């Protein structure tokens, strides 16, 4: 399965197997329930261990959540770098970046839900709101400013691109089974994904090209 | 203030003043904390009443939340109808719809956060996932299918339009103060809003026009 292959690439296992199992389970629990409703007990049960075994690795819920969020953004950034380095010029790089985010989120829908919840939050949880997402934000800001600098792109705001174009991948993944049977789709289905990817490319070009 | 004027139009007060105060406070509490973390006590405290007074109007958290969500989508639908009826032809109607959603969400950011959380949820909370959002979904589906039927639009999926274009308004509102000082903006600022609106129009046209 393509999605599973990407998932394996996208993950960055560190440390021992139990620690990784805790992180995998925690990502799913935080994605499904949100930070507030998630309990360390839910994570322990999903892994098949007891609560104290989690606390051996992560002192509390906040630390566990932080590690999950850090892993998501680190993996996403790695994934982008691999794709973008093969692309030449700002437009190819922008499309490669958007493709990478889309493929990453389709392969790892738990990440999509966690980022979606992050956007919904009224105020950042910690002192530095972009401690983990900074790399992702810089990835898109860098390619946009390169395109503007060399005259390929018009003066477009990176935040507008993030909100208006890049964010679509999150909705595409999260809305797949949310809106009733008649509106459901499989985001990993090749034809469905190709259709949405073509739309994102069209939108990206319309957004940045002059005129 | 423009936002306050739209807010007044956008709200549909029903019943007595206390009930409305409870709903207003609950919308803010659910938007800020999410369903799981929100407590009736938080709502009572925000209104300046005691918990039993809420229970007089709403038997529990689920019923209160349902009424908040129902009000949001009913108000959004009313707001769209007023705007769309002045527009002639599918393209003007599509842009009027997207403008209406954008203005509605800018004026009522609590609604944006609640919808954003709804999208993040793994599975619908009740038996009918679109009990409240159905009207909004139909609004965009109707204009898209009209445009396709009369040949103005290419064969574009309404779900792709929702995810790829319409959803941007949610990110625009929710991300305004989330990503650190250097990336913050006021979504109600006229110049900022005009810039994002122009982008949304550009994207909508690129998405639906043939070629």
Explain what you see.
Two copies of one chain form a homodimer. In chain A, α5 packs parallel to α8. In chain A, 71% of the residues lie in helices and 0% in strands. By secondary structure, chain A is an all-alpha fold. Chain A has one domain (2-208): Tetracycline Repressor, domain 2. Chain A starts with a helix and ends with a helix. Chain A has eleven helices and no strands. At the A-B interface, α2, α7, α9, α10 and α11 of A face α2, α7, α9, α10 and α11 of B.
Number of helices of chain A: 11
What CATH architecture of chain A do you see? Orthogonal Bundle
- Tell me, rounded to a whole number, the average pLDDT of chain A: 90
Tell me the radius of gyration of chain A. Answer: 18 Å
What is the helical fraction of chain A, as a range of percent?
Answer: over 70%
- Assembly type of the chains comes to homodimer
The number of strands of chain A is: 0
CATH class of chain A: Mainly Alpha
CATH fold naming of chain A:
Tetracycline Repressor, domain 2
Largest interface, counted with CB-CB under 8 A?
Answer: A-B, 52 and 52 residues
Structural class of chain A: mainly alpha
State the fourth-level CATH superfamily of chain A.
Tetracycline Repressor, domain 2
Strand content of chain A: under 5%
Domain count of chain A: 1
Instruction: List unreliable stretches of 5+ residues of chain A.
Output: none
Characterize the biggest β-sheet of chain A: none
* Helix/strand order of chain A, N-terminal first: HHHHHHHHHHH
Distance between the termini of chain A: 41 Å
| Morphology of chain A | globular
